[in-house]
Amino acid sequence: MKSVLVLNGPNLGRLGSREPEIYGDLNLEALTKQLESLATELSVKISVMQSDSESVLMAAIHDATDKGTDIILNPAAFTHYSYALADACKAHTASGAKLIEVHISNPHAREEFRHKSVISASASGVIAGFGFDSYKLALRQLAG
Ligand code: DQA
Fold first, then answer.
1. For the chain, what are the domain ranges?
2. What is the pTM for the complete model shown?
3. What is the pLDDT of residues 67-116, one digit of tens each?
4. For the chain, how big is the Rg over CA atoms in Å?
């Protein structure tokens, strides 16, 4: 069975209470349940993680690269400035494994600092602006 790692960056553990007008009123547990249910339907094994720490996210990406596991990554604010995560994503996609960058909101329709992603050039593709459906579209794509 195909495995997919769903990685969530900083502040995404605050979903549900953080700016609900932008991110909705459902929490990370609800997102995880929705993705687990879709994964079962698609016969994909998923593991969902969240960390506020760049080094924890990097270690998870490195591990997925070593295992050839595809990744759905919401880098959150690291999207806009983490060259360390960008390098790890580049090594991941260069190895032949896939990585889809996702965002709940559409960062291009928001503040200017969100318009730039340092991750996108290292991703297989980007899906943004569809709420939790951004993750589901990515999962469907990876399930092939
Ligand atoms: C986000 C968009 C980022 O700009 C922001 O820093 C986040 C969440 C999104 O999912 O819309 O934390 O990645």
1. 2-143
2. 0.97
3. 999 999 999 999 999 999 999 999 999 999 999 999 999 999 999 999 99
4. 14
CA 19 to chain centre: 19
Pairing of strands 70-74, 99-103: parallel
Q: Which of 12, 50, 78, 79 to mutate for ligand 1's pocket (most ligand atoms within 8 Å of CB)?
A: 79
Distance CA 80, CA 95 (A): 23
Residue 14 sits at the vertex; the CA angle it makes with 35 and 127, to the nearest 5 degrees, is: 45
The CATH code belonging to domain 2-143 is: 3.40.50.9100
Angle at 113 between CA 109 and CA 116, to 5 degrees: 80
Residue-wise pLDDT tens digits, 108-127:
999 999 999 999 999 999 99
50 lines ligand 1 (CB under 6 A): no
Contact 114, 84 (CB under 8 A): no
> Which of 6, 22, 11 is closest to 105 using CA atoms?
22
- Verify whether ligand 1 is closer than 6 Å to residue 104 (CB atom): yes
